[in-house]
Amino acid sequence: MIMTESPHALIVDDDDQFSFLVETYLSMLGISSDVAQNGIDALEMIEEKNFDFIMTDFKMPLMNGLQLLEKIKGNPNYQSIKTIFVTGGGADVNDICAAENLADQYILKPFTLETLKDKIHSLNLEQ
């Protein structure tokens, strides 16, 4: 199935500056986006809107990125949503391994815009 609308992303990160930069870059790529500050807010937004992919940070208050990925992939209604896991470090090796198994893609901060573009492209959102 070929998408007729532009992709829609959910950025989940408690760092407002990072979220703004990613949101701006996605806009330049023709991708609309919404921002959630933590996993709990993200789950509420997922219930209200359709997202083609979710880009989530690891370290966040209330519900971290790994917990969010577990909830998304554990729910049949959301399993098809593509995910990109992002971390700047500070995560336990076991948590990172678990996230790599749950997420469709993984990015380590800091990263280049070209890396982000390549990771998004690899999600094959057109299919």
Q: Would you mind describing this structure in some detail?
A:
With 127 residues, the protein is α/β, with parallel strands linked by helices. It has one domain: Rossmann fold. The chain contains five helices and five strands, in the order βαβαβαβαβα. It has a five-stranded parallel sheet with strand order 2-1-3-4-5, sandwiched between helices. α2 packs parallel to α3. The longest helix is centred in the first third of the chain and has 13 residues, at 16-28. It starts with 7 loop residues before the first strand and ends in a 5-residue tail after the last helix. The model has no long low-confidence stretch (mean pLDDT 88).
**What is the SS-derived class?**
alpha/beta
Helix content range of the residues, please? 40-55%
| Weakly predicted, low-confidence segments | none
**CATH architecture group name:** 3-Layer(aba) Sandwich
Instruction: Name the strands of the widest sheet in spatial order.
Output: 2-1-3-4-5
Order of helices and strands: EHEHEHEHEH
Mean pLDDT metric: 88
The main pleated sheet reads as:
5 strands, parallel
Q: In DSSP terms, counting alpha (H) and pi (I) runs of 4 or more, how many helices?
A: 5
CATH topology: Rossmann fold
Tally the beta strands.
5
> What's the alpha carbon Rg, rounded to whole Å?
13 Å
Q: Could you tell me the strand content as a percent range?
A: 15-25%
Give the N-to-C terminal Cα separation.
Answer: 5 Å
Count of discrete domains? 1
Per CATH, the superfamily is Response regulator
Shape: globular
CATH class: Alpha Beta
